Amino acid sequence: MDNFACLYVVRGEPYRAGTCVNLNQEETNVGRVSNELTPDLAFTNAFISRKHIIIRKEQDKAVLYDLGSRHGTELNGVLLTPHTPYPLNNFDIIRLAKGMTVIHFSYMFADQTLEIEPLSITMQLEIPKLPLEISWEKRECVVDGKRILMSEKEYLLIRVLHEHTNRLVPMEEIKSKVWPERSPGAEGYSDVTLDELNALVYRVRKKYGKDTFLISAVRGGGYMLESELKSS
């Protein structure tokens, strides 16, 4: 089956964000390129092991194995046990070497999903601890010592993304949580346009600083917040 499943690179040199890799083989190797070995998905980061993970087709299911990588693999924020099978599901986020490389897994392909370019793809080797605190009760952020009040929509967006930090939040969930007053559209969830959602994300990035909330739009129809935030 040619269109079995795919990986989208969210962050990982030398690939452009959004690069799609079709998992059309029985086994797909992911690791670091070297003189002796070129994996099917080959990264250049030195912290990625030459044989980092493998994804196998097992009874029409994609199953991930960490191959004993030196710096580890996380699946939706959970550190994996080496050489143990982990079945994959739509919207799963795979992080290699403590988030230096981030991959999005999907059984759906670009022509079946929203074509969204990432709004913020960080190129740092790790996600920094930002000088940011959030007070949900006061609905305000403290950025570099400066208190910034959140609007209603900013609060709702940041809240739903923060609740799933470092994981993909589907578009439908964001729309229903941020615009609960909207009546359901033809697809059964809040009738909100992609332009409205993109504009809100843009305002958040502009108001609080482009590196304060690292929000990525991930192929597959959702957004992800990469951060290590303090909240109260």
Structural summary, described in words:
By secondary structure, the chain is an alpha+beta fold. Helix content is 15%, strand content 32%. The protein has helices at 152-163, 171-178, 194-208, and strands at residues 6-11, 20-22, 27-32, 41-43, 53-58, 61-66, 73-75, 78-79, 86-87, 93-96, 101-106, 132-135, 140-143, 146-149, 168-170, 214-218, 222-226, 230-231. Strands 2-1-11-10-7-8 form a 6-stranded antiparallel sheet, with no helix packed on it. A 5-stranded mixed sheet has the order 4-3-5-6-9, with no helix packed on it. A 4-stranded mixed sheet has the order 14-13-12-18, with no helix packed on it. A hairpin with an 8-residue loop joins strand 1 and strand 2. Helix 1 (152-163) runs antiparallel to helix 2 (171-178). The longest helix has 15 residues, at 194-208. 32% of the residues are buried. This is FHA domain-containing protein. Residues 122-227 bind DNA. Residues 28-80 form the FHA domain.
Quick description:
The protein is α+β, with helices and mostly antiparallel strands. It contains three helices and 18 strands.
Give the SSE layout.
Elements: E1 6-11, E2 20-22, E3 27-32, E4 41-43, E5 53-58, E6 61-66, E7 73-75, E8 78-79, E9 86-87, E10 93-96, E11 101-106, E12 132-135, E13 140-143, E14 146-149, H1 152-163, E15 168-170, H2 171-178, H3 194-208, E16 214-218, E17 222-226, E18 230-231
Parallel strand pairs: 3-4, 12-18
Antiparallel strand pairs: 1-2, 1-11, 3-5, 5-6, 6-9, 7-8, 7-10, 10-11, 12-13, 13-14, 15-17, 16-17
Helix pairs in contact: 1-2, 1-3
